[in-house]
Structure formats: structure tokens, C-alpha cells
Specification:
Elements: H1 7-19, H2 26-33, E1 37-46, E2 52-61, E3 69-75, H3 81-97, E4 103-109, H4 118-134, E5 143-147, H5 153-166, H6 193-206, H7 209-215, E6 225-229, H8 233-244, E7 248-254, E8 257-260, H9 267-277, E9 287-288, E10 302-305, E11 324-326, H10 335-344, E12 347-349, H11 351-354, H12 357-371, H13 380-398, H14 404-411, H15 416-441, H16 448-467
Parallel strand pairs: 3-4, 3-5, 6-7, 6-10, 10-11, 11-12
Antiparallel strand pairs: 1-2, 2-4, 7-8, 8-9
The protein binds glutamic acid.
């Protein structure tokens, strides 16, 4: 366990801060706060050089108020029980805020994936899955993992394959894990889902005139100066969607360094440059920061930490000059940083709902797996035929023709990607509005994170009490 800083302790602190604004009994609050099941495991693997290594891994189920439990699996050298517990708790709150009917869970394997060959990683992932099966910690109705930091579609296929091999004939087996490749039952749009959700969430906040007035900013995303820390799946896609919406990405940071250009950086070009040279630094036309951390302190409108937890704390928070911070990562700000920003009037859009795009689209994937049919398959052609009928009637009545591009848009029936994107957009807009309403209804609530926790606590507590556990 980390002895310097407890991430789970930070989550508990934020929870307690919000619990004061709810009416629930102490016992109910305590039940919500705690992790229901913590599975810590050790297993051996043979490395490519013949040596044997004992791997440390975890799966934590934070809440069983809904089934299955849901949450990603992280591969990182820093993984520890405290961290996995915190991330599992955040999953519960995240799911409930976006009305995704799952309990929170999280998994972690304490390895630096860069130091292992693909063959070794496959062995580790398959063995981890077998350990989960052994204890019934995985299954479409019990606990459904997904990607997180250091894992992706490849690892999810190994998990599915291991699970299916051990559950022959289980028709819903594909629903045992999400974030799979399309060919293995994945859903279109899952890869970019977290980044897109971050964009939809922040865009909604930027469209609120009262909030923008307070920050001294015009409404809308266009022209806003954005800094993104982390160019992994979440950071890359967040940056890309902001760029597509005509925001200016003025700085990008990675662990090896950070770069800036007041006129804006092209996200794809930077991504390719990093792939080619192995570093984000020395991108043509951009300036290098002397230290990576300086990127967090540059003047901007929106700062998006999209890597790991605990990057902004009580020490560097006073130097942050952003007006709005969007937590794309899980837990990038400590409670001490929250205090600094609340005092300064900086709005922090909190992780546990802002990065819920991933799990929201995981939910769509799980539903697809259980229903065994691709989204849009049944209605696409029917909708197109109907639209065509309506359009020709209107053209006949008005004696006018619409343009070719308008015709294409009006006739188009929904594909899977259209439905996933619009389902996610609806989810993020509603969640943003619900949190803001709660905040406005109770002006004593100090910040948006606390408001989000209040929403989450109320929903989980209602579920518990209506389950009859707390009559
Ligand atoms: N790991 C992601 C998260 O932290 C996704 C979880 C999921 O899709 O279940 O939200």
C-alpha cells in the first residue's frame, strides 16, 4: 500500500464532504462507502528467459447494490490495493450518476507492461482471468471487466477467450468483458468513448451562460484554449474532439516531456511525431517546456488531466491558471487541490462523471452482447424508407427540391456508431444538468465534485433502501 498518500482515503474524504448534504442514516452511508469484496492474488508465470516471477494482482468489487459489477483492469507498476479500492469506489459513483445499472469494481495487475513481451502479457492476462473465474469474480451477470490504463482491446480478447473456453455453451459469454474488438463482440465507438464523453460533458458546461459568466468566458467550445496532459487513449481522443470542435490545443504533455504553441497544435501530427521519434519533445513548430509539470501551470481556459491520479495536489494547485479543469483521468486532483480551486472560483468538472463515457458505451456493448444483435440492424433500412417517403411527399407539396447533401442527411438511417454516439451524448448532457441542478438547489455545496457525490449517494442509497436492506 502506498504509505504517502491514500487514494481511497481521498475518495472517502470527498464522500464524507458530500454526505453532509444528504439525509441518509449513518449506517447506510457507511455501507455505501466501503468496498464489499477485495480479492488480492498472487500467481507465478514463467518469463521468456526461463525465470519464474510471482505476479501481484487485484480485483475489488466496491458495491453489490446492482449486478453485475463493472470496471476496468489496469496494468501498471504502481498498482496497489488502496488504488484499486479507490478506483472501484469511483466506478460505483460513476455508474450511478450516468444511470448505468452496475455496481462498481476495478482490477489491477502490478506490472509495467512495457517490460513484458506480448507472449508474457498474454500468459499473465489469461492466468489472471482463470483466477477470477476460480473465485467467481467474472461473468456477464457477476462482474464485467474492461480496459483501463495499460490495457486495451487485445487484453480484452484474451480475457473473453479464456472465459469462453472454461464456459462452453454459455450463450452470453461475450458479455463477460467489454472493450473488445468488433470481431469479438465489441461495439463501434467504444475505443473513443471516454474521450468523447469528456468532450460532451465539458461542452455542456461551456454552454451554460451562468457558469461561463462566472469564469469570465464566452459560451461554447470554439476558440477556447485547451491543454491536455496524457496522450493515451483518453487524452488523445479528448484532444481530438476538442480540436474538431475548433478549440485550440495550446499544449500537450506526456511523461517524457511537454510542448506548447499558442496558435494551436495538430493532435494527430503530434501523435505521429511521438510514434516516430519515441518522444513528444521537439515537435516541429512547437516549444518544449523545461519540465513536464509546467504544462499544467500554463495560462489556458480548459485544462484536461488525462493520465494518472494525484498529479495536481496542494503544492502545485496554486500555480494552475486554467479557468476550468476537466478530470478525464481518475483522481488527478487531491482533496487539497479541490480546496484551492474552490477558493479561487476555478470550476472542476469531476472524474467520476466526466470520464463515464467509457463505462456508458461498455454498457451499450454488454446490452449488444446479451441481445446478440448489432445496433441499427433492425431499423436502419426501415427508417431510410420512411424518410424517403416523407421527403418525396414534402417535395411534391412544396414544389421544391432539397440539396443533395441535405437529402443524404435526411434519408440516413442510424448505424451502430450513430446510435452509440447519440446515446452517449444524451447520457453526458443529462448527467451534467442533473449535477448542476443539485448544486444550484443547494448553494452551500462548495464545488461540482461534491454535487456529483450528492447525486451518486442519493441514488445508491435509494437503491439500497428500496431493495429492502434498510427498511
Ligand atoms: N476503465 C474505464 C473507467 O475507469 C472503463 C470501465 C468500463 O468500461 O467498465 O471508467
Amino acid at each position: 500500500m502506498s504509505n504517502k498518500y491514500s487514494f481511497f482515503g481521498a475518495v472517502e474524504k470527498s464522500f464524507d464532504k458530500a454526505a453532509k448534504f444528504t439525509k441518509w442514516d449513518k449506517g447506510i452511508l457507511e455501507q455505501i462507502r466501503q468496498c464489499n469484496a477485495v480479492y488480492q492474488m498472487r500467481f507465478p508465470i514463467k518469463r521468456d528467459d526461463g525465470s519464474i516471477e510471482v505476479i501481484e494482482a487485484y480485483r475489488v468489487q466496491h458495491s453489490h447494490h446492482k449486478a453485475p459489477c463493472k470496471g476496468g483492469i489496469r496494468f501498471a507498476a504502481e498498482v496497489n490495493q488502496d488504488e484499486v479500492m479507490a478506483l472501484a469506489a469511483l466506478m460505483t459513483y460513476k455508474c450511478t450518476i450516468v444511470n448505468v445499472p452496475f455496481g462498481g469494481a476495478k482490477g489491477g495487475i502490478k506490472i509495467d507492461p512495457k517490460k513484458y513481451s506480448p507472449f508474457e502479457l498474454e500468459k499473465i492476462t489469461r492466468r489472471y482471468t482463470s483466477e477470477l473465474i476460480r473465485k467467481k469474480f467474472i461473468g456477464p451477470g457477476t462482474d464485467v471487466p474492461a480496459p483501463d490504463y495499460g490495457t486495451g482491446e487485445r487484453e480484452m480478447s484474451w480475457i473473453l477467450d479464456t472465459y469462453s473456453a472454461m464456459h462452453p455453451g454459455e450463450i452470453d459469454a461475450a458479455g463477460c468483458v467489454t472493450g473488445k474488438p468488433i470481431s469479438q463482440g465489441g461495439v463501434r465507438g467504444r475505443r473513443e468513448a471516454t474521450g468523447l464523453g469528456v468532450f460532451f460533458g465539458i461542452r455542456e458546461v461551456c454552454n451554460m451562460p451562468d457558469i461561463m459568466d462566472k469564469l469570465g468566458l464566452p459560451t461554447g467550445v470554439e476558440g477556447k484554449k485547451v491543454i491536455v496532459q496524457g496522450l493515451g487513449n483518453v487524452g488523445y481522443h479528448s484532444a481530438k474532439f476538442f480540436q474538431d470542435a475548433k478549440a485550440k490545443i495550446i499544449a500537450l504533455a506526456e511523461y517524457e516531456g511537454a510542448i506548447w504553441n499558442e496558435n494551436g497544435l495538430d493532435v494527430d501530427a503530434v501523435f505521429q511525431h511521438r510514434k516516430k521519434t519515441g518522444s513528444i519533445l521537439n515537435f516541429p513548430g512547437a516549444n518544449n517546456f523545461a519540465k513536464t509539470g509546467e504544462a499544467l501551470e500554463m495560462e489556458c481556459d480548459i485544462l484536461i488531466p488525462a493520465a494518472l491520479e494525484n498529479v495536481i495536489d496542494g503544492k502545485n494547485a496554486p500555480n494552475v491558471k486554467a479557468k476550468l479543469i476537466g478530470e478525464a483521468a481518475n483522481g488527478p486532483l487531491t482533496p487539497e487541490a479541490d480546496e484551492v480551486f474552490a477558493k479561487k472560483g476555478i470550476i472542476v468538472v469531476p472524474d467520476m462523471y466526466l470520464n463515464a463515457g467509457g463505462v456508458t458505451v461498455s454498457y451499450f456493448e454488454w446490452l449488444k452482447n446479451l441481445s446478440h444483435v448489432r445496433y441499427g440492424r433492425m431499423e436502419k433500412r426501415f427508417t431510410e424508407n420512411m424518410n424517403s417517403q416523407i421527403l418525396s411527399q414534402m417535395e411534391e407539396l412544396s414544389n421544391k427540391k432539397v440539396t443533395d447533401s441535405a437529402r443524404q442527411m435526411i434519408l440516413h438511417g442510424p448505424d451502430e456508431i450513430d446510435l452509440v454516439y447519440s446515446g452517449l451524448e444524451e447520457t453526458m448532457i443529462n448527467a451534467t444538468r442533473e449535477i448542476m441542478e443539485t448544486w444550484k438547489d443547494n448553494p452551500a455545496i462548495p464545488d461540482m465534485r461534491t454535487a456529483a457525490y450528492v447525486v451518486a449517494i442519493n441514488k445508491v442509497a435509494t437503491a439500497y433502501s428500496e431493495l429492502g436492506i434498510f427498511p
